[in-house]
Write a structure and sequence with these properties.
204 residues, Thrombin, subunit H, 3 helices, elongated
């Protein structure tokens, strides 16, 4: 469920208000040493979270899904009539693999560092013409990838033997990565499993 700030809720429930919901776009291009591009869909620049967000024409299409099972994606068009983005696109191989963060903030609540909405996307395609830089973006992770990333096992240590997290000093050359193995090596305090997991349930 979407959770809005108290200020935004109060403004939303007014019969008349001069507050607006501002869309902020942060583009992290894959170029070493280059700061993220920060723009806002507004008529004037704003300052939010200690950063300046430049007023910039943009158009964000709706995210549509189909019945083919393909990953949802949509286009973001950024004005290119002034060629302001050309350098970044050329130097970053079309910004492919770059990260787009869309945030929504309330104009009456710019002192808050927490946006009303925040979504992250990855750039998969980029098209440039004399009018627009069009970024095709999708999920920043594959929906069918493992979530959570790591496996949580009752009797299986996820650390590599004698690495920085294991820190075992035993003279034994290897480890079975079990709690008993950790105890035999005097390193059970740094066991990388989760012995508190309940025995019930189904294990695959």
């Amino acid at each position: 469920m979407l959770s809005l700030s108290s200020i935004t809720k109060a403004e939303k429930n007014k019969m008349n208000t001069d507050s607006v919901m501002l869309i902020l776009l942060e583009l992290q291009v894959p170029i070493d040493g280059v700061d993220p591009i920060r723009v806002c869909y507004n008529t004037e620049d704003i300052t939010w979270n200690g950063q300046q967000w430049l007023a910039f024409p943009m158009d964000i299409a709706e995210c549509e899904e189909d019945s083919t099972g393909s990953y949802p994606s949509f286009d973001i068009k950024l004005d290119n009539t002034g060629r302001a983005l050309t350098y970044y696109v050329e130097q970053s191989n079309g910004a492919n693999g770059g990260l787009v963060i869309l945030r929504v903030v309330n104009s009456k609540n710019l002192d808050s560092t927490t946006p009303e909405i925040e979504e992250k996307y990855e750039v998969s395609e980029c098209h440039v013409d004399q009018n627009f830089v069009t970024l095709t973006v999708g999920p920043s992770y594959l929906p069918d990838s493992r979530r959570p990333i790591y496996r949580y096992l009752k009797n299986g240590c996820r650390f590599e033997y004698k690495d920085k997290r294991c820190q075992c000093t035993s003279s034994l050359a290897d480890c079975p990565h079990t709690l008993a193995g950790c105890r035999a090596r005097g390193n059970s305090a740094r066991f990388g499993g989760f012995p508190g997991i309940d025995q019930g349930g189904i294990y695959v």
